[in-house]
Write a structure and sequence with these properties.
N-(1-d-carboxylethyl)-l-norvaline Dehydrogenase, domain 2; binds uridine-5'-diphosphate-xylopyranose; 17 helices; Rossmann fold; alpha/beta; six-stranded parallel beta sheet; 13% strand; single chain
Length: 472
């Protein structure tokens, strides 16, 4: 089938490349000439496993890049809208790009088309897109609008698209549902997975994935509810980690004990410095706003966001309790991206923490395997970019681990100890075992677990407040 994807960002480009790999003829439309030129030169603008292979496999044949929305719409049966939906000042989703694309599509409809929302949009957007297209001249029965939310995690987006836990199709007519079923048939009937050149299968793959057909509104809500629930799970375990710190328990043990309950599950129970990225923070604010507009005061989401913000403040206090004064201290920092496996620094907790520490007068030397260039643009000159973890640690008063890159979990601890001015590590992602770190001569702080140190003397536990009405 001929399909168009509007927007060649983190979602649109991956969706276009994967739809081509399913056998469709895809044109990816973007209004950013520089981006189009780079894509047509064969460049890969984002750090995604298997994306280079797919672009190389299909560019110029099944996958084309263009700035001509009208031609793309005329040639396609389905048009996926994957343009940005950034937050406004008030935290609502800015749908102005979606609206401008809807207007552009309306003028080009010359036969039945399915317009598919791929971007994360608030519930009711489907109704608005339909209204905009009608207002701009399209015949009411000349098109349908569907919602097909994506559940792509950055760094594994290609695998997440081709091996999804589920495919959600929000369609309000059978005709529209039929088009989308045909588009996803190679996944839903399992035939894609029999191909010798299929992208490698991840461990927990659902093969074939269930294809769930809902109303458009339900599909829009599924996306917001999914992200809100996942963010809530992270804030929940971060709050439990803080309680563990207060009483001297070990959150890793608590996670094992609760995560083995199949109703809870072990995944997304990693305490740390809080969630970031271009989705969770934005989608929670948007969900909160659209719930309020629909008459429901979803205050639980405020608490999820508050805990997330507080997690970073707690980490700063942990650094201060480890070093006493911060002004002038030299800190080695591992990680700039919002999570391991990506070069994206949008809403990165690591970047936000570095900016706070700079305000406290710290000198920062940071290393990240992929996010250097993007971070260099975002951070002012006050930070040194190291070429390796060991260079970042060189002569530092302490080493901070802020992003869960796999390579940060297997460092040469002996070499690290030699590089550091003082053997102090403050791990915001719990990548190491405290006893192992003490055995290697480090004073080691982490999240939700007792601090450890090589000397027998007790290490100050940063967050143990004086017990109320304790008997003196
Ligand atoms: C976007 C949304 O931000 C996210 O909420 C949703 O889940 C998926 O789509 P992302 O792909 O990261 O995420 O957006 P972005 O990286 O901003 O890319 C959007 C692309 O659309 C850009 O390349 C931009 O040039 C292009 N665009 C934007 C258009 O082609 N036309 C427009 O009118 C607006
Ligand atoms: C998320 C959703 O997972 C995905 O389904 C949706 O389509 C887009 O948003 P993404 O933001 O790319 O994906 O990354 P994700 O792996 O979800 O991590 C989000 C943030 O939470 C990162 O900052 C990560 O470090 C943090 N995180 C994740 C935790 O702190 N603990 C965890 O257990 C998992």
């Amino acid at each position: 089938m001929q399909v168009a994807v509007v927007g060649s960002g983190y979602v649109g480009l991956v969706a276009g490349a994967c739809l081509a790999d399913l056998g469709h003829d895809v044109v990816v439309v973007d209004n950013d000439q520089a981006k189009l030129a780079a894509l047509n030169r064969g460049e890969v603008p984002i750090h995604e496993n298997f994306l280079p292979e797919l672009l190389h496999r299909h560019r110029g044949t099944r996958l084309k890049f263009s700035d001509d929305l009208e031609s793309a719409v005329r040639a396609s049966s389905a048009i996926f809208v994957a343009v940005g939906t950034p937050p406004t000042e008030q935290g609502e989703a800015d749908l102005s790009y979606v609206e401008s694309v809807a207007r552009g599509i309306a003028g080009a409809i010359d036969g039945y088309k399915v317009v598919v929302e791929k971007s994360t949009v608030p519930v009711y957007t489907c109704d608005w897109v339909r209204r905009i297209i009608q207002r701009n001249g399209a015949e009411t029965d000349g098109f349908d609008v569907a919602s097909n939310p994506e559940f792509l995690r950055e760094g594994t987006a290609v695998t997440d698209f081709l091996y999804p836990d589920r495919i959600v199709i929000g369609a309000d007519t059978d005709r529209c549902a039929r088009v989308l079923r045909e588009i996803y048939a190679p996944l839903a009937d399992g035939s894609y997975y029999d191909r010798p050149d299929a992208i490698p299968r991840p461990d927990r793959a659902m093969i074939p994935p269930p294809l769930i057909v809902t109303s458009a509104k339900s599909a829009e809500l599924i996306k917001h509810a999914s992200n809100a629930f996942l963010a809530m799970k992270i804030s929940f375990i971060n709050a439990v980690a803080s309680i563990c710190e207060s009483v001297g328990a070990n959150v890793q043990q608590v996670c094992q004990g609760i995560g083995t309950d199949s109703r809870i599950g072990q995944r997304f129970l990693n305490p740390g410095i809080g969630y970031g990225g271009s989705c969770f923070p934005k989608d929670l604010m948007a969900f909160r706003a659209v719930a309020r507009e629909c008459g429901y005061d979803f205050r639980l989401l405020d608490e999820v966001m508050r805990i997330n913000e507080d997690q970073r403040q707690r980490f700063i206090r942990k650094v201060r309790s480890a070093l006493w004064t911060l002004r002038g201290k030299k800190l080695g920092v591992l990680g700039l991206a919002f999570k391991g496996g990506t070069d994206d620094i949008r809403e990165s907790p690591a970047i936000l923490l570095i900016q706070s520490l700079q305000q406290e007068g710290c000198q920062i030397s940071a290393y990240d395997p992929a996010a250097h260039d993007r971070a260099r643009e975002a951070l002012n000159s006050g930070i040194t970019f190291a070429e390796s973890a060991y260079e970042a640690a060189h002569d530092a008063d302490a080493l901070l681990i802020l992003t869960e890159w796999e390579e940060f979990a297997v460092l040469d601890l002996k070499r690290l100890r030699e590089e550091l001015k003082y053997p102090i590590i403050i791990d915001g992602r719990n990548l190491y075992d405290p006893d192992v770190m003490a055995a290697h001569g480090f004073t080691y702080y982490s999240v939700g677990r007792p601090a450890s140190s090589p000397e027998p003397q007790p290490v100050p536990t940063p967050e143990r407040p004086a017990r109320k009405n304790a008997k003196l």
